[in-house]
Amino acid sequence: MTTTLTPPTTGHLDDDAAGQAHFDQLIADDNRVEPTDWMPAAYRKTLVRQVSQHAHSEIIGMQPEANWITRAPSLKRKAILMAKVQDEAGHGLYLYSAAETLGTPRDELVDQLLSGKAKYSSIFNYPARTWADVGAIGWLVDGAAIANQVPLCRASYGPYGRSMVRICKEESFHQRQGWEILYELARGTAEQKQMAQEAINRFYGPALQMFGPPDDESPNSQQSMAWNIKRFSNDELRQRFVDMIVPQVEALGLSFEDPDLKWNEERGHYDFGELDWSEFKAVVRGNGPCNEQRLNHRRAAHDEGAWVREAAAAYARRQADQPVVDSALIA
Length: 331
Ligand code: 3HC
Description:
It contains 14 helices and two strands; from the N terminus they run H-H-H-H-H-H-H-H-H-H-E-E-H-H-H-H. By secondary structure, it is mainly alpha-helical. The chain has a two-stranded antiparallel sheet with strand order 1-2. 3-hydroxybutanoyl-coenzyme A binds next to helix 2, helix 4, helix 6 and helix 9. The site of 3-hydroxybutanoyl-coenzyme A has 29 residues, from helix 2, helix 4, helix 6 and helix 9.
């Protein structure tokens, strides 16, 4: 039974004026906003949006890799992949819990995903075609997630920022195991090296798009940055990530299929090619290659898990009906 904090409602103009002043001071001082603090309705709304979609992404993100657990090439790889996929489930539950502190019940958030109303990260619309894709997902997708999530550890909303600290530690393991898969393949047979190269060719562009649309097409960024939810813009984090992965791909002995990718001494960054934003928009609108499969799988899992939710709720109700027995009376 999920208990959701009832957001403080004032309704009284003076209280709202005092609340707004308190909130503004928290943001100005770069302090945390906690669930019981007064907050503007728009701040609450954008956090429910971002945190719940982040949670949806973690849960849907389990699918491409889970498909490879039974096909992992060794017991060691199988154990590592199982641990990673289980971590993602935990990240999702962690983030749903953070979102619930904003006053929206979890089942309402989950229904928004199952109905197709809510978004999840575009990257999980792409299939994991080969074992090398599991490596590319770990290295590039979880690597991009780390680049995006480390600044979120300092998000102004307390439960969100604190949830990121533990999640980022586990993402580091995810990125390293993906790197190791590609490192082994790149040093294997010519076919294995080719498989690794083809995997990073497929995931390079979509991974860069995980950071969101270009800044001039990002309706939420400016306000999110003003409220210290986002610490850097989409393009800033994307650039930071490109600068990070180019030396890494060279160390793998592989390359990115991007003719415009080259060091720009003047900028002190790597220039890189234009991404396919029309594909991105189509994916975000729900027309991604795997969207229907991903949502149908999630709906089926939700239906199959109904008995667990019902049993947990029945147990919680029975516990709630039990008379509270003073433990001293038993002694
Ligand atoms: N996929 C799907 N939708 C996306 C998107 C993407 N990659 N990037 C942006 N969008 C959506 C936004 O949600 C927004 O739509 P909405 O207003 O209906 O929610 C719209 O496109 C415009 O984008 P904005 O830049 O204005 O939106 P934001 O300011 O919210 O920035 C974001 C987008 C950078 C993804 C931000 O929401 C964010 O940092 N979210 C938290 C991180 C996250 O969700 N990561 C997803 C991956 S989780 C993961 O990788 C798991 C790991 O373990 C593998």
